[in-house]
């Protein structure tokens, strides 16, 4: 028996091994091509789709010769760099999920519209500056700070950054953004979102005790004129009345999720919310009933009579006939 004990791997953990070198070959490239299309002036043809998913690749240097590829799937390999893609300037879609990437940086791709890098080890958003990019998936990486160039990403409408290590929404003020998914981060502060004038859907959902410890709804703005759906499930919002007033400024808000937050356990929780946000249609996915709206109206009048509402409140007639 050895005098030195072997290191023990805890249950549920996997020992990460160094990948065995696996170089992409011309034969594999050829076998992975499909979708014959016209190229250039339309007088020539080339295969423009390449699927290299799940081949344990560590080296794709040879791919730089396949300059006509438009649709590329590199998912489920062991890549730590995408530098050989710099010559593939006709790319329209790129999938590089489940690799070992620490960066998604690429030279500017003039036609790239969709890119996915989820389940890697990416730590920064720098180097993502593709002018036609519309959909970007960075879920489940190790990004601590968002640094996007709003001018370079002027077409970006969908951004997914679930399961990273963001502590604020700083750097996410992209004016064309319509859907933003930030669940399962460690966000404690909302900022820069006043620039998201086209944003329709915002997910800030927490998951467990260590993610999205958001306690305040400071940072929402009347400039967010398109926001219709806001998911705050599992966050730490604990003061219902003062916090709910901070999102009264959202004129198009129709759906709000506050399930599994401290405020959702308060008495008259639903009534308090609809009394403050009269255009809201759903709370925690349940439609407000006529009875709830009537109850909110009666509670409003009762508080007015008791002098709990300011006579100068600009919203003072919101429930009055």
Continuous helix count: 4
Structural class: alpha/beta
Order of helices and strands: HEEEEEEEEEEHEHEEH
Estimate the global geometry from the Cα principal axes: elongated
Number of DSSP strand runs:
13
Main beta sheet, described? 13 strands, mixed
Could you tell me the radius of gyration in angstroms? 25 Å
Task: Give the structure's gist in a few sentences.
By secondary structure, the chain is α/β, with parallel strands linked by helices. The chain has helices at 26-32, 240-244, 269-276, 290-305, and strands at residues 33-39, 44-51, 71-73, 93-95, 114-116, 135-137, 158-160, 179-181, 201-203, 229-231, 255-257, 282-283, 286-287.
Question: Can you put this structure into words, describing what you see?
Answer:
- The protein has 321 residues and is an alpha/beta fold.
- It has helices at 26-32, 240-244, 269-276, 290-305; strands spanning 33-39, 44-51, 71-73, 93-95, 114-116, 135-137, 158-160, 179-181, 201-203, 229-231, 255-257, 282-283, 286-287.
- A 13-stranded mixed beta sheet has the order 1-2-3-4-5-6-7-8-9-10-11-12-13.
- Strand 12 (282-283) and strand 13 (286-287) form a beta hairpin.
- The chain is elongated.
